[in-house]
Specification:
Belongs to the RecO family. By secondary structure, the protein is an alpha+beta fold. It has 7 helices and 7 strands. It has helices spanning 84-88, 90-107, 111-129, 134-145, 194-205, 218-236, 241-253; strands at 3-19, 23-30, 34-40, 58-67, 73-82, 168-171, 176-179. It starts with a strand and ends with a helix. The chain binds zinc ion.
């Protein structure tokens, strides 16, 4: 067990829970160490000085001691901000928690994956916080994060013959798009409509940092959600607690 003291890193508070009487375990997605759990002492004591930097959905620059295994420790935070809208809105909260849950399942404590993905997760949460449609931002992240789980669907052309001509359908068995000629190969293809396929293609190549606006019809939103739920259930098969909550919430909403 090695404790690396005086480490500076970017972080996003992803979850927290009470620990013992006055302490707290705070999970932070860091850009250098992946997801680490920090033991924060004396949270409920008067005069506790780290309160503002460990609020849910806080993000910014932190200083702390990182433990290779086991709990890490926080010293201070600098330039700490909070995704305010996400913090205040239970719906946005659920989407953000799900994105962080996916990131945690795929990245864990892998430093190089953390470095690669931190900016993108931060950008997704920033866009949701700024009022971009949370279900669409979540779908974009779902498509792009498939690679974290070893799923690399071919979305450029037919995965059998490389034909780039529409129409396409999506086949889990063939790992991506099928052109019309090859539809008979897979009776279990997802039978997606052209618009849904178009957005899956767009999302896989989209740079969130350059997203200015995006409008998707309600019907297509539903189809995208169904398609990605199917792909995640069948091909990824991980359990993200926030997903269940998100599903229940959407049932109430619609
Ligand atoms: Zn083909």
């Amino acid at each position: 067990m090695v404790l690396h003291q005086g480490q500076e890193f970017l972080g996003i508070v992803s979850s927290r829970r009470d620990y013992k009487e006055r302490d707290m375990l705070v999970k932070i997605f860091t850009d250098r160490f992946g997801f680490k759990t920090f033991y924060v002492r004396g949270v409920k004591k008067r005069g506790f000085r780290l309160g503002a930097i460990i609020l849910p959905f806080s993000h910014g620059r932190y200083l702390g001691s990182i433990n290779d295994q086991g709990l890490s420790y926080l010293n201070l935070g600098k330039e700490i901000d909070q995704y305010q809208q996400i913090f205040q809105d239970i719906f946005l909260n659920a989407y953000a928690s799900y994105i962080l849950g996916l990131a945690e399942a795929g990245i864990k404590e892998d430093s190089s994956l953390a470095a690669k993905w931190f900016g993108q997760v931060d950008q997704a949460l920033t866009l949701i916080d700024q009022g971009f449609e949370p279900s669409i931002i979540t779908n974009i992240m779902e498509v792009q994060m498939l690679t974290l789980f070893g799923v690399r669907p071919e979305l450029r052309y037919c995965s059998v013959c490389q034909n780039p001509q529409r129409p396409f359908d999506y086949s889990e068995n063939y790992g991506g798009l099928l052109c019309q000629k090859h539809w008979p190969l897979d009776p279990y293809r997802l039978h997606l409509d052209a618009r849904t396929i178009y957005y899956l293609q767009l999302f896989s190549a989209l740079d969130l940092k350059r997203l200015n606006s995006i409008k998707v019809k309600d019907e297509t939103k539903q189809h995208l959600k169904q398609a990605l739920d199917t792909i995640y259930n069948d091909q990824v098969g991980i359990y993200i607690p926030a997903k269940k909550f998100l599903q229940e919430m959407n049932e109430i909403k619609f």
